[in-house]
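Following up on my earlier thread - several people asked me to post the actual chain instead of describing it. Fair enough. Here it is, all 315 residues.
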Amino acid sequence: MSTFPTTLVHCLSERTEEQKWLVDQLWTVGAVGIIGGEPKCCKSFLALSLAIAVSSGVPCLGRYKVHKQGRVVIYAAEDAPHIVKGRLEGLSKKNNLNLDSLDIHAITVPSIRLDREEDQLKLKRTIEKLRPQLLILDPFVRLHRIDENASGEVAFILASLREIQRTYQTAIIIVHHSKKGATGRAGQGLRGSSEFHAWGDVNLYLRRDKNDQLLLSIEHRDAKSQTGIPLQITEENGSIVLSVSDENIFLKSIEKESINKKIEQLFEADDTIISFSDLRARVGARATNVSATLKEMVEQGILERVTGGYQRATN
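Reply from S.P.:
Thanks for posting it. Predicted structure:
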């Protein structure tokens, strides 16, 4: 009877920091994951921005360097081919590129059903033939007829995509919806089974704050995560263009992320109650910044205000 191959752990291959990234800070090489958010949060445009970046080598969102340029395959289940082409042409012109020079392939069948083994096999053969650096499937809800709340049914589809990723070292992005009005951690707000959140090596979340500012959060399994990165939305050449807002706002978002992470660490014990003055001293940041972060975490359902200070939300 045959056995599985093994190797000593110290003999396993390593990657340098540069080899690790497909797009610096945004997506790691060969990672699977989700672009999630409520409707009208530009999820598809973020996916197309990544497609342009990976296929051309230009920085994604005007900031994030591409470390491994290569072919991209897209399946846009909700948009007609001329719409996808128009959006990509607009993004190409914004970056002073010609679309016909980019190695982006679109799957053109009317529908794909990843809950059927026949379509799983067709997708696998497509990736085997084209060997892309990146596969984008948008959106997940149009790729099946399963119950998204049934973990076993969802896991069956996600496992087939993981097999493709591991076999061909292809990064895979699924565009997926969040529940409307979801609070708490972004990953927990994804619609359907918790399998989605658990599956992702990288997850990107888009949301709008109370001032309608579009914010990007980046969640990594194997790298530093970031939250609250403000994005600027412009319309050029008939296409929505996303970019990170100016440097000062960007740097403030990094500071905010650090405060957020420190506060979360302080509340690792569910029954911990910490006063504001103690929080400020232990976080080591200005009172206004700590107060603003606490307010946002309460609004998101992560923390709650109680007598004596704050504690992790119990709901």
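The chain has a mean pLDDT of 89. That should answer part of your original question.
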